[in-house]
Amino acid sequence: MKKRHKKGTIAVSALMAMAMLTAACSSDKGGSETPAAGGGDGAASVSREGFPIVEEQITLKMMAPSAEMANWSTMPTVQAMEELSNIKVEFETAPIDSFPTKKNLTFAGGELPDMLYAADLTPAEQVNYGSQGLLLPLEDLIDNYAPNLKAVLDANPDVRKSITTTDGHIYALPFIDTTAVWYRGPMWYNGKFLEALGVSEPKTTEELYTYLKRVKEEDPNGNGEADEIPLTSVKLDDLRMFFLGFWGIYNEVYYADKEGVVHYTPQEEGYRGYLTFLNKLWQEELLDHETFSQTDDMKKAKGAKNQIALFSDYHPYFTLGGEPRTTDPLMTPVSSEIAGTPVYGKHPGISSNGNFAITATNKHPEATMRWIDYQYSYEGATLWTQGPEGLMWEYEDEANKVKRYKEVPGGGDREEYRATLTPNYGIVTPGVNIPELTNGLRSELDDWIREENEAKLVPIAKSPFPRVYLDNERQTEVSALMSDLDTYVKQMEARFVTGAEPLANWDAYVAQLKKMGSDRIVEIYQEAYDQWDSENAS
Fold first, then answer.
1. Residue 51 needs a FRET pair 20 to 30 A away by CA distance; which of 172, 330, 472, 501 works?
2. What is the 3-state secondary structure (H, E, C) of 172-200?
3. Among 207, 171, 150, 241, CA closest to 464
4. Residues of 339-360 as b/e, b for ≥16 C-beta within 10 angstroms?
5. What are the phi and psi torsion angles at 41 (to 5°)?
6. pLDDT score, position 82
């Protein structure tokens, strides 16, 4: 069974948490009331803070994707939120895989819901539907009816800028975690191999090569067979971004360096260094020769037989098997011949900037904004990620927000039980991740991983590129160029690594990239970055 992971295991900044907790709404009573304005019909007075949000119950229609583990209407979280807010929500859900089609058909001519939840509205969709008047601008609603979200955005201006479109409006809300570290699962060492060979982690690409060679030649799994696989991957997708950092590159397609200069990765000299290194590993059979053909399950089968020395996964025991443990180190990025390396492309802190939107047909936009704003507070994030108190968890020390898990009814899986408590399962939802959410709930492994991140990745990390919006014309141009470029780059990467294409042909390869429009990609994203940077500084 595929493993799923709860949100909330990575902390956010103290400034952000403090601002949020200061602004957080009371969870029971109070607040001034304001007649509905703007798109509202004036029938309901909306409380700017506290609960209930409206004195006279209203009903809102929501469209969302669902993991289909339970009926949303009967979930304890939904029922608790209705009791708190006095807002009844009618759900129109679709399976995760078919939701994009349903979303497109709805905007193409169907009846719009009042709000879209976990909708993964792309930047192009936000600009398109916003400019057509199908989505409401949210910035004034945020300032007047979303104290929790406003506090987060005020403490993190980069986030506000990254959800503001080219016309100056905010049409959709994100899931925010400003201290998230990983873009993808990182690289891990098999701790048993390090111990058997009596070595510490390599610090340079040369030391890494030497270590991988020793793995191949010195039988660290001790079975008397030459079956060790020094480095494995699934089509390089799982290691590419991590390894590129060894040559000073923050992302696998395009990125802005520390000076704000945009680069198209596949034509950079650092990318050439990455290819050269992997080709060397391939030629000496230090890189798994099934890399371009194997599945993730095939990789895990090798790990379960204790054959793999270095690999990528969300947690090391997912590949190596056994119980969660802290004996398989997160790989320390290594330096190369390029000065200033290594670097690490850090998660931008926004998992999606199109998670929630209010449509133009919504008669109660102020109340709707108050309703979603609760998920940007500690109390609301707790309710929507962990369910109501007393079911999956209870307070051990409420004053310090320390919780403990309760026994799962029937002794079942906790995550599957959580999926019956709240809609926030298997989908990226609006809201925020704050450290207090998991006080007392984090495992020893969770805390160890945070320490590994802080020691090995955070000091060299930078977000590769802000989330920027392109106008429709440039978005269409970029999409067309990228489609052909991505296919060509992927093909050539495999050919260079395996030696089917000699690296001596690098210049011809770069010339072909430029002919296909790689420099135009740089030009478009440099303009977008400069615009984002200048507005962010103002």
1. 172
2. CEEEECCCCCCCCCCEEECHHHHHHHCCC
3. 241
4. eebbbbbbbbbbbbbbbbbbbe
5. -95, 0
6. 98
pLDDT digits (tens, 9 = 90+) for 420-431: 999 999 999 999
The amino acid occupying position 172 is A
β-bridge partners, 395 = 403
Distance between CA atoms of residues 228 and 231, nearest Å: 9
In the predicted model, what is the mean pLDDT of the chain?
90
The ranges of the chain with pLDDT < 70 are 1-44, 535-538
Q: Say how far apart CA 107 and CA 90 lie, in whole Å.
A: 19
User: Letter for the amino acid at 113?
Assistant: P
In degrees, to the nearest 5, what angle opens at C-alpha 170 toward C-alphas 538 and 427? Answer: 125
Neighbours of 229 (CB within 10 A): 24
Measured distance CA(257)–CA(244) in Å, rounded: 13
**How far is Cα 123 from Cα 266, in angstroms, rounded to an integer?**
24
CB atoms within 10 A of CB 292: 14
User: What's the angle, vertex CA 447, arms to CA 446 and CA 449, rounded to 5?
Assistant: 65
CA 482 to chain centre: 22
Q: What single-letter amino acid sits at 192?
A: K
**Which residues in 21-51 are b (16+ Cβ under 10 Å) and which e?**
bebbbeeeeebeeeebeebbeeebbbbbbbb
pLDDT at position 337 is 95
The amino acid at residue 333 is: P
Alpha helix ranges (H) inside 325-377: 365-373
**Whole-prediction pTM value?**
0.82
271: phi then psi, degrees, rounded to nearest 5: -65, -35
What is the C-alpha separation between 289 and 213, in angstroms, rounded? 15
What values do phi and psi take at 339, rounded to 5? -65, 145
Q: What is the DSSP string of 488-527?
A: HHHHHHHHHHHTSS-GGGHHHHHHHHHHTTHHHHHHHHHH
Q: What is the pLDDT of residue 222?
A: 96
What is the reported pLDDT for 109? Answer: 84
State the first-to-last Cα distance of the chain, in angstroms, to the nearest integer: 49
